[in-house]
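Before the break, one more example. Copy the sequence into your notebook; we will annotate it together after we see the structure.
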Amino acid sequence: MHLKFDTIQGWLIYVAMLSFLLAFAGLLGKSKKPGRALYAVGFVLSVVAFVYRWYHVGHVPLQNLFEVFLCLGMLIYPLSIFGERFLGVRAGAIDALIGFIILFPAGFVFNAEPQRLPPALQSWLFAPHVAAYMLAYVVMAKASIQAVGQLLYQGQGEGGGYELGTYRMVCLGFPLLSLGLILGSWWGKIAWGDYWNWDPKELWSLVSWLVYLGYFHFRYIFGKKRPRINSLIVLGGFLAIIITLLWANLARVFAGLHSYVS
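Here is what the structure looks like once it is written out:
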C-alpha cells in the first residue's frame, strides 16, 4: 500500500475522497444540498490534483495506473451532470460513491513516483487515445450501475427507467470505445509497425467492444422483452473493461507491449 500523506498531491486526493464520501452520505440521506455541494467540492479538488500532477511530471498525466485512476475520479462528476441534464439519467448518491471508489487506488494502492515518458508514448496520439478510453470507462461504469438498478428493480416501475438509462449511457460510451480502439490501432502502426499486435490489452479492448456491440444487437432484436439479459451483457462488458484496464499492468506473466504503463 502506497500512502501519500507527506505530499500535497496526496492530501488533495484524500480530501477529495472524503468529500465524495460525505457527499454520498448526504445524498443518501436528507442533506441533499450539502451533499451536492460536497460532490462539487470533491470534483474541484480532484481537478486540482490532476492539474498539479500534470505540472509536476511535465506531461499529460495518463501514463500509469496512479494517473489513470486520478483522471477517472475527476471525470465522474461532469458525467453525472451531463447524464442528468441531457440524457435523463439521474445522478444520485451512488455517483459520489463511485468517485470515492475510483480515487481509492490512486490514494492508497498505486505508486505516485513520477516516471519519465518512454519514447513510445511521446506521440500526439497519446493524450486523445487514452482520454477517449478514460471517458468511455467512466460512462460504462455508470451504465453498469444503471444495469444493476434494473436487475434490482425488475418488474417494478423503476426497472424500466434503469433499463433505458443503461441504454443511453452505452450509446454515449460505445463511440468513445470505438474511437479509443481506432486511435490505438493507428498509434500501433506508427510505434510498432503494425495496426494490430495481439497484445493482451489490445485483445481485451476488442473483447469489451464486441460485448457492447453484442448488447446493441441483442437489444435491437428483443427490445425490452429481455431486460435482465440486456443488463447482464452490459455488466459483462464492464468486467471486460476492468480486465483491460488492469491486465497488462498487474498480470506480469502475461505482460505485453503495454507493460510500461504500470
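The chain has two domains: 1-114, 118-262. The first helix runs from residue 8 to 28. Try to locate both features in your own notes.
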